[in-house]
Write a structure and sequence with these properties.
Blueprint (H helix, E strand, L loop, with lengths): L3 E4 L4 E4 L2 H16 L7 E9 L2 E10 L5 E7 L8 H14 L3 E5 L4 E7 L2 E5 L5 H4 L2
């Protein structure tokens, strides 16, 4: 097994880690399953909020290049608990996305902003549906 994985978003090989495997898997879910164009995604996106630096695992953008979805990836052993949700919500304070996804490669949860709250979605929407 290779020590590296190809990241089609960063256009380079990256070190194979358990979290990176989840990130690359979910990039393929976004592209192949949810029909998100690769050029509308970025991985490992750095940003700051209230003077603190953060790094979003995956950002999906709308047609106007505004953040639409933030994806927080964890390795398989990490439980997708309130701590992980809170991390994604913290990112959203700066990014103001419509969708939040948390995944550990075994389970994935997607939430849609409705008003001031995020609600669990039973089914992941296609990019075309998200950008309407």
């Amino acid at each position: 097994m290779s020590e590296f994985l190809w990241d089609p978003l960063r256009k380079k090989s990256v070190a194979r880690t358990p979290e990176e495997e989840v990130r690359q898997w979910f990039i393929s879910v976004l592209h192949e399953g949810m029909h998100v164009p690769e050029h509308m995604m970025n991985s490992e996106v750095a940003f700051s909020h209230n003077g603190k630096r953060y790094r979003a695992d995956i950002l999906v953008f709308d047609r106007n290049a505004h953040p639409l979805m933030v994806v927080e990836c964890k390795r398989a052993e990490v439980a997708l608990d309130q701590t992980v949700v809170d991390q994604a919500l913290r990112y959203n304070r700066e990014l103001e996305v419509k969708y939040i996804v948390i995944t550990n490669g075994l389970k994935s949860f997607i939430f849609e902003r409705r008003g001031d709250a995020f609600e669990f979605m039973e089914k992941a929407p296609l990019w075309e549906e998200m950008t309407k």
